[in-house]
Amino acid sequence: MDLAYIPSPSTGVIHLGPIPLRGYAFCIIIGVFVAVWLGNKRWIARGGTAGTVADIAVWAVPFGLVGGRLYHVITDYQLYFSEGENWVDAFKIWEGGLGIWGAIALGAVGAWIGCRRRGIPLPAYADAIAPGIAFAQAIGRWGNWFNQELYGKPTDLPWALKISEGVNREAGLYHPTFLYESLWCVAVGFLVIWADRRFKLGHGRAFALYVAAYCAGRVWTEYLRVDEAHHVLGLRLNVWTAIIVGLLAVVYMVVSARVRPGREETVEPKKAEKTEKADGAVDGAGEDEAADAEPKDVAPDTDSEEPEESGLSDAEKAEKPEKSTNGAGSAAKS
To answer: What residue spans carry the region label Disordered (predicted)?
Structure first.
């Protein structure tokens, strides 16, 4: 008799009238909101403008969903295109099946388009959203719990996951690999935040750290899984993918640190230009005020003083009649 285990939901969907509310979809949506929220805070802290992360996510998220589904369908094509299967099921994304490798790859393409439209360097944007992506994955993995999928080998550990009888699955207690990966992703998110603050990571190195750390955990969680998958040299395809992608991320961090050390001083050029223009306007106004404050030259009062009679000889000065101070005196002299 098993005294402790993690129960699985009896169903992954609740119907609100004719509208189905699926746990898998909710986990994906909540994860996206968390990633955008945290990415926005980190972007502003690095000198960016509020709302920029969300604007670019409008491009990145749809591309990522399409890429994740494409990767899953291509690598598990036998589930949809083999004899007796219905190829239409390949479009039923709500039933589960998103490959993180395809999601990140095609999502990066969407992010690049959004960054290019805003004149923003993609590596800086990737660094800002890296921890948020890790947390989004942690939340998204609970969608596998709702669908009772991606569990590991049988186990009698107290935290074993109870799986019920269903299509392509047998009832029993299994390793909760969804939970292992979820917890690992949370740790990766905090690792990236700490390393970014400690070492001032820039030029895409925070994102590369996220990729490398995630791949390290994905290797052992993938090894525990028992769902159908293609094998290469005795290892699951996703194990090889995690090893290769993780090594590439480490190489990028090392090379990037040597070629472009430090962190970007400006992450949003257009905002910097506006700031410079505003500063220039303030400085110009200050100069005008200073100029207005300077005393202006006062014209001499010609009525109060006699003009100098330079150039006259003493005899000429003696012959020149004196100017009268009043009208009477002037008349008497004439």
So the answer is: 263-334
